[in-house]
Structures are given as structure tokens and as C-alpha cells.
Amino acid sequence: MKKRNPPKWALRFLQFYCKDRYLEQIEGDLFELFERNPSTIGFIWNIIRFFRLRYMKGLDGFEQLATLAMIKNYLKVALRSLLKQKIYAGINIVGLAIALASCMLITTYILHEKSYDNFFKEGDQIYRITKNEFGSYTPPLLAHVIREEIPQFDAATRSSGVFEAFFEVGSKQVKQDGAIRADQYFFDVFNINFLKGNKEQALKKPNSVVLSQQIALKYFGDNSPIDEIIKIDGDNFIVTGVFENLPRNTHYPFTYIVADHLDLSGTYYWTGGSGITYAKLSDNSSYADAYKSLEKIYEKYAGPEIITWTGYESFEKMKEDYPNTKHVYFPHSIRSIHLDQPHLSHNEPGNKEANNIFSIVALGILLIACINYINMSTARSTLRSKEVGIRKTLGSFRKQMLFQLLIESALITFFAILIAFIISFLSLKFFSEITLRAFNLQDMISLENLAFTFLLFLLTSLMAGAYPAFVISRFNPVEALRGTLKLKRKSYFRNGLVVFQIAASVFLITISLVIYSQVDHLLNQDMKIDLHKTMVLRNGYQLGDKYDIFKQELERLKEIEIISKSDRVPFMGINNYGYTAPDKGGKAYNLDNIFAGSDFEQVFNLELVKGRFLNPNSLLDTSKVLLNETAVKEIGWHNAIGKKLMRDPFVYEVVGVVKDFNYQSLKQKINPMIIRYGASVYDIGIWHQNNILIKYHAEDSTDFLDDLQKKWSTFVPGYPIDISFLEETFNKTYDGERRFGQIFTSFSILALIIATLGLFSLIAFVLQRRRKEITIRKVFGAPAISIITLLSKEFSILAILGGTIGISISYYWLKEWLNDYSYRIDLKWSYLALPLLFILVLTWILVSGKSYRAAISNPSSALKEE
Amino acid sequence: MKTKSYRLGELEELVLIIVAILKDEAYGVKVMDEIQDQIGRKVNISAVHTVLDRLEKKGFVVSFMGGASAERGGRRKRLFKVTAEGSKAIEFVHETRNQLYSQIPKPATGMG
Q1: Which terminal Cβ of chain B has fewer Cβ within 10 Å, N or C?
Q2: How many C-beta neighbours within 10 Å does residue A455 have?
Q3: Would you call A49 and B47 a contact, using CB atoms and an 8 Å cutoff?
Q4: Residue A265: which residues within 8 A CB-CB, separation 6 or more?
């Protein structure tokens, strides 16, 4: 048996902090205990227990009474000064707590985002192979060829999914998501723990299925599912194994695997494909070598096909024409998929840019809260002057004063962190909803997270405490005691910080506002398609050749206008096929491809520009196609009617051109599109009726849903109906933007709250200092309104300055952001003026509310104090 | 002459006595095991070290480094020995306890 060693890093940590005198004996004892019971956790725990002041380097004499007593005293003084100014301390703590809670949530989020697929054993050696750099789907034979011809890879597997399938177990009939198909090499690449069954044999037989623990439990309870039979989409499968549930942080969230074997003798294309290929790099091979081999494979297999289809003389020539394309089956490390290649993820994709933005925003909020502390404690520093004077007179060094003041800020931060924990626990559910991740308490108190929280604690204590401590400890003791210490009336530093706070808040508000307007703008575009009156029945292929009767019978219902079918549906993703135009020298074009049934044009309100629609009753029309205007423009035909397009070995004739219509998220421009006739009668055409499209008259679809359901179950007994509404699907395409907007808005509200708190206490302080001035003005007859105006002026200037800076920065950022959208709002002045106005009004309310009290108070109470 | 009074914490007392029992063989893990075996009490190794260190500072025990062996990752042991002062302390504790014990009214002890 291999001898286990205690974790090196833990030992290194011990060596780092422990005094030499004690190190050897402690290490020895720990080793002895570890030899007795090789538990890594126990070892680490013991080292943590040894993390005591007495063993720490450089802390000799720490136990001496004086030092300890001083720290106790510092804490006591700090606590007293907090209690003396409860409101200010409260504002500081609440502000910091809100900011720290945001930081803690963001940390949890980012750590989670970075943890994707880390749990796979040898996950850093597993690669997802894509076609060129970005094509998700790879040729069917690729995994086989990698196994046979590339020695740098230990294993390769072909799979597909993730999809839903229809389960029948005993009398239970349920739709079950999380399915993938995979060949028998799957577990050679993904070393997943098996709880039952034999991993090596599990997918060998063609009709086997392997379940996750969760699925096994759902359908078989505590009984062993091994050798049980499940009917999946109508075919019988035998359960051959149960594997451990995958954690949720994976790009490939499957819950069961259906064996799927490839007939190697078939003929397959090398330029398309519907499978997903994974391969595992062997221990002693380099990525660069593997990449080179994959390039060779690409040239060898895909090369000839590309040459015949595009008409290039040679592969080299073709490469010259497309210098920016990677001519390779590209290996992406699976750990990079979630953030770097989110389009390859089968889970909720990550967003690297959003991660960065959110961490900056969270830090910004923290900064705003720290500024509150800095401003308030420097503003109120004269209150501490006597204390500083006495301490210095009695022999305190400046260093000691600094330390004391830093302990004070650390204490405040500590209280804030405690509250921040509560805030973040309470808001975890909301946070999970807007980020589409299922966070739980364990994520928040994971070791990594706590370490970050500790760092955050140190950082905040320093950020907030350093400057005030520097200023206060500098006081000249003589002046401080005599009471002649004067704070400068105007502090540029303090005002600068306030301007920054306001600028940051305005920046966030402006951006939230514009994101919302933009999403609204996208949702309210005139879509030509009647989104709210179109629904889609999935799994239309289940109807088989009964589709025509189904269509006829449903169209007899008075609520239903017309029915058609297609392979893909707008807003749910469209296939992209390559075609060549013989009269353009065989140049290749990538066209969005849709197979449409009869009346497709009526369901989607398509308009003809030229030519005619397809005639579903004419068999001849299987070789006729429609193009949209963009396609005609891209190919460069003046009159497209009668022109030919080729997709080897078939030739298609263009018979009509339709007006451009939106069938994707409006983020994108309209792509060139080809509409082909989807046959229903023969085998391959069955996929062309994947989706049944229903356009209805009724305002409310609930009126006829029952009828529809009944019709479906008479045509496809036992298979559940799956309806989706086009409007919902359309709205979902902007989920990303909407979530981004939500998170941004939440943050800007928080930032605003904190900044307002700071502004409030600063105004209160200034008023207090100028109380005598105000009273004297009053005595001499100044009306309340002129006093309020006088005081508002100073803060208004700060607000305008900060607001302008904030708006200018957000303007540049937003221009960039909006550039990604082909349908975008103009950055009207109102978007920019509104936040500025808002912050001004807020300032006025705060100032006048506070100064009104001062202005109407009895003058004698302020003047008679001395 | 009034006898010198010794102040020992509960665990300190225990460890000191065990060091005395082990005689030249006392070191961290061994002391921990002994407490576990004889008294049935689980103590973390770091607590034992802390107590030994404290006893040494009070002058009740002295320590020296043992020889190296292949076990313990090649680290030497620090062995502890009771000093004369330590022996006195044990004696003191023992005596005072006995003295107090003997003063308990008889019927209150045992099952009566």
C-alpha cells in the first residue's frame, strides 16, 4: 500500500508561523499521530489548534501583561467612543455591512463560477473537441479516429445531449430531463464514481442505460435498479449501473446516460455532425503536440470534403482565403468551458465579463462605504483631540496611536461583518434567483469563502481606518490640549471623496436605467410575427404520417387559424448549413436553414418580395427554396429567382425571396436564411416536423387548450403534450440582459443607500459646526429659506460635480455596451439628466430637512451654551 | 515555617503527575495517550503542548531533546522530566487534597 503523507501545505503553514524552538517537537507529534491514524482532516485540525499566540514567531513577550492590557484598553476605548456616538457608529456599521454583504455574495458567486468541472478527476486533461474553434458539434467518426490515430490522447468518446426523454417505469410515465447518449468509451474519459454496476461493462451493450443516484432513487426507491427495465422514448433499456450524482457546477449536467453505438461501417460527413466529442490527454503528452495531430486529422478527413464542396484547388489555397479560421478540430479544456466558451455549456452558461464587472461594482460599493467612515471620522476628529493630547503627553508614540485607531476601525468592520453575514444569508435566495445559481448556506461558509471574508475584513479595516488614523495621530499634543486645534473649513480631500461617492452612485443608476430601457426597447419591437398568438407543440415527429389529418382536424376548431410545422422554431436556435453557388465560382455561404411545412408563411406572416412561396402539394418543390433578402444581398444576386444553390450532391432552385424578418434575439442582425420544403412522408422528413406551429385567433389560449390536449392524446396516446408559447420563448432570449439589469439595479440601490447615509451624516455634522453661525444670522433677521439656500449651495455644487463625472463615465461605457445590439435605443439626454436631477433633489431634501430644524430652532438654545 | 503554596490548574496538575509517572519518557503524544488511557479523557495534542510549556516556564519540569528515529517524519522528541520544584508541587497538591479529603464527615462518603 502506498504510504500516505500529510498535506504539505498544512505543514508549510506550521513551519511558517511556528517558533523554531517548538517546531520540531510539534511536527514530530503530529507525524506520530498521523502515522497512527492517517486522517488529513485530523492533521489539518491539529495544526489549526496549534495556531496559538504562544507558538507564533515574532510574538515573544506577547504574553507580557503590558501589551495585552494595552490591547484590552484599546478595545475598551474604541467601544466607548462607538457608544458615545451611537448614530454615527450605527451609520458606519450599517453602510459597511451592506457593502460587505454585497462583496461576500459576489465572492461566493465568482468562486462558484471558477469552480466549474473542477470535481472531475483529471479534469485538466479532458478536452472538449470542437469543429474549428467554436462549432459545438463534431463529426460522428471523430472520437473513433482520435482513439485510432492520435497517440497523445488516452481516450475519446462521442456523446450527445442534454435532452428530455419520455420514461416508462412500471405504471409511471414521466418526462425526464438530463439525458445524454454516449458510446461505451464515456467512462474512459470521465472517471465517474460508480455506486452499483460495473463501470467497464456498463455501456457496452447497445440497450443499456446508466442512472445517477438521484434518478435511481426517484424511480426505484431503495430497491436496486440494476437489471430493471425502463422504456425510454418507446424502446426498452436495461439499467446497468448507478453513478454518483454530479455536482451542480458542471457544464454537462446529465443525470442518466443511454448507450449509443455507432455503426463504424456507415458513411459519415466530416464537415458537419451532431455529436459532442471529448478526449483525454495522456499524462506525458503536451497540448501542443495533440493540437498538431488534430490539425492533421482535420486536413486528412475534412479537407477533401471541403475542397469538393467549395471548389478550391487545394486545402492550402482554402486556408489562405480564410486566415482567421482555425482549420482544426479544436481542443478546449473542459474547465475553461463555463467562463471562456459559454456557448459550449449545457448548463446555465457563465459570463466572464459580467464577473469582472460585478467584482468591480462590489469593490466600488465597499469603497463608498469606506469613504463614509473616512469622512465621518476625519470630520469628527477634533472630538478626539483631547484624548490624543493626553495620550501623547503621557508618552504614547505615534505608532501606538495609529495602532489604537486602526483597532477602532477593525472593531467597526468586525461588527459590520457580523451583520453582513446575516444580510447575505437572508438575501441568498433572492441572489440565487437573479444569478440563476442555486446557492446554499454551505457555499457561503466554505473554507475558501471564509478566507476571502477574512481578507475582506483586513482590507476594509485598513481602507477605512488608515487615513483617519494617519490624520488623528498627527495632532500636535500642545494644540490638541489647548483646544486651539482647528480643522480646515474646507477639506478638498473630504469633498473629493464625496464627489467620488456621488459619481459612483450616479454611474450605477444611469447604467441600470439604460439597461432597462434597452431591454424594454427590444421587447417592444414590431416583430411582424404574432408572438402572442403563436404556440409550438414539440415532439411533432410523434405524429408520424398522421400529421396531415391532425392539421385538418385542428384547423376545424374555431379558435385556431392555421397550423404548420418546421424542424426549428424562431428564437429557439436555428441550424446553419453550408451551400455553394455554382454561378459564383462555387463560393460557399453559411445560411440559416429551416425546413418548413405548408402554410409556414401564414403562421409567421412572411411577405414575398419576389417570386412565389413553396407549393406543398407539388413533389417537385422539394428541390425549391426560398431566401430572405439578406441572403440574396450576401450572395450578390440582382435577381435571385431561378438561381441555383448546391449542397452536395443536391441542387436547389430559388423560387422566391421573402422580406427579412426577425427569428433570433434582436441582439443579432438578421442572418442570411434559406427556407426549404420539409417533407413529411419519408423517414428523414420525420425530423422536419419536430415542431408543430399553431397560430390562433383566440385572445386567450386557455379556451382551446383542453381540445388541443385531447386531440394530441388521441393521435399520440401515452406521450405527454409539450406546449410552449412563442412570446415566452422570445422574452427568454433577453433573460441574460434582464438578469444583468436586475443585479445592476440591486447594486445601485445599495450604493445609493450607503452614499445617502454618508451624505446625511456629513450634512448633520456640518450643520452642527455651523450652528452658531446659523443662529446669529437668524438673530439678525435672516428668513429660514435663505439659511436653507445658503447651506444647500455647498452640497449642490458637490452633487452637480459628482453627478457630471458619473454621467460622463457611464455615457462612454453605455455607448460601448449598446454597440452590441443591432436594435438599440439612442442615448437620449433624458437618460443622463434624470439621474443627475435625482441626486440633486435627494441632496436638497437631505440638506433642507436637516437645516430646516436648525433654522427654526430657538436661537437662545444655541447661543447660551458657553 | 509555612509551606510554600503551589497553584496548579486542573490539567496542569494531571500532566505534571503523568510526567512524573512516565519518568524520562514523557513527551507530547505519550502524555496525551496516558491521559486518555488512565482517565479516559480526550485532550487535543496542542493543549498538552501548551500545558507542558507552561509547566516548564513555572519551573516544574525541564525538557531536553531525545534522539532521532525514522518514525515521526525523522523529528526528535522533546522529553520532559519533573524538577525538584515539580516534585514538591506534586507533594503539596497531594497533601492538601488528602488533608481536605480526611475532613469530610464520614457518613457523607461512600454509599452510606
Answers
A1: N
A2: 11
A3: yes
A4: none
> Quick one: three-class SS letters along A260-289?
CCCCCCCCCCCCCCCEEEEEEECCCCCHHH
- Cα A816 from Cα A244, distance rounded (Å): 45
Residue A653, all three cell numbers: 432552385
CA B84 to chain A, closest CA, distance in angstroms equals 24
Q: Among partner residues B27, B46, B78, which is closest to A50 by beta-carbon distance? A: B46
The neighbour count for residue A778, using CB atoms within 10 Å, is 21
C-alpha–C-alpha distance, residues A804 and A836, integer Å: 7
Distance CA A381, CA A386 (A): 10
CA distance B78 to chain A (A): 6
Contact with chain A for residue B83, Cβ under 8 A = no
Could you report the predicted ipTM of this complex, rounded to two decimals? 0.82
| Cβ neighbours around A103 below 10 Å, total | 24
Q: Are residues B75 and A28, on separate chains, in Cβ contact within 8 Å?
A: yes
Q: What are the tens digits of pLDDT across the range A353-393?
A: 888 888 998 999 999 999 999 988 888 887 788 888 888 88
Which residue from B45, B50, B73 is facing A46, i.e. has the nearest CB? Answer: B45
Say if strands A650-658 and A608-611 run parallel, antiparallel, or are unpaired.
antiparallel
Q: What is the pLDDT, as a whole number, of residue A61?
A: 55
Residue showing cell 519551573: B59
- B residues 19-58 closer than 8 Å to A (CB): 27-29, 44-47, 49-50, 53
Find where cell 414539440 sits. A538
Question: Mutate which of B49, B51, B76 to disrupt the A interface (most A C-beta within 10 Å)?
Answer: B49
Predicted local confidence at residue A158, as pLDDT: 93
pLDDT in tens, A562-604: 999 888 888 877 777 778 888 887 777 888 888 888 888 888 8
Partner-chain residue, chosen from A33, A49, A52, that has the shortest CB–CB distance to B29? A33
CA gap B33, B31 in Å, rounded? 5
Which amino acid appears at position A293 of this protein?
Answer: S
What's residue A138's pLDDT? 87
Residues of chain A scoring pLDDT < 50:
1-2, 682-683, 866
Question: Quick one: closest CA in B to A63, which residue?
Answer: B54
Helices A398-435 and A385-393, axial angle in degrees (round to 10):
140
Closest CA to A645 of A586, A596, A574: A586
CA atoms of A797 and A844, how far apart (whole Å) = 11
CB contacts, 8 Å: B28 with chain A? 25-26, 28-29
Contact between A10 and A49 under an 8 Å Cβ cutoff? The reply is no
Whole-model pTM: value is 0.72
> Can you tell me the distance from the alpha carbon of A756 to that of A839, in angstroms, rounded to the nearest whole number?
9
